[in-house]
Amino acid sequence: KDFIESDKPLIDILCDEKVSDQPVEMAFYLILLHLNREPLNEEIYQKFDEALEKGHSEEELYLLFLSFLMVLYGFKGMIFKSECIFRISSSFVVSKYRLEIQAFYYQCCAYYFVKTKEFNKRKDAHLLSLSKMPKDSPRYKGFLINASNILGINGCLLELPKEDLEIIEKNAGKNFASV
After folding, report:
1. Which residue stretches of the chain are H helix?
2. Which residues contact 16 (CB under 8 A, 6 or more apart)?
């Protein structure tokens, strides 16, 4: 609920939830904490495996966890594991979840497609992710800025609507939590 209704960083939300006894929440916290850090120790990877095995009763949370785990494995060069997580996440009926969850899922898929060198799918997934994120969501601006970095690198930034380009221009140089 806090994730959808605020722009509070997800890592802070997970910290507030006292995640230590919940395998998925703890693993998700570790993903967000270590996404851009190298290398990870075997104990952390074991926590990811435990969370995968355990699953979660809240499907939206579990799909977000899978989405970011897929990205983490891709960033760490563990393409086979990333592909496995992609296949698991692809079994979800994503359209039944709230739009913000769909948007983050498709954005994570776009990062996955970078690692699998499926560049047309990457572009399509990024544009789809932006179309899913409600413009009145507290997360919209940060989500847009994050997506614009990738779209700009790919030469696709001008495919965004004029209103989005204005938001990006007004917020140039500002830092946003990507999640």
Report:
1. 2-5, 10-16, 23-34, 42-54, 59-75, 79-90, 99-115, 119-132, 140-153, 162-170
2. 2
Backbone φ, ψ for residue 133 (5° rounding) = -70, 120
148: nearest Cα among 162, 158, 133: 158
Q: How far apart are CA 148 and CA 54, in angstroms?
A: 35
- Would the pTM of this model clear 0.85, i.e. be above it? yes
The DSSP code sequence of 85-112 is: HHHHHHTS-GGGS-HHHHHHHHHHHHHH
Number of other residues whose CB lies within 10 A of the CB of residue 20: 9
Give the pLDDT confidence of 84-118 residue by residue, as tens digits.
Answer: 999 999 999 999 999 999 999 999 999 999 899 99
Nearest Cα to 177, choosing from 131, 145, 148, 132? 145
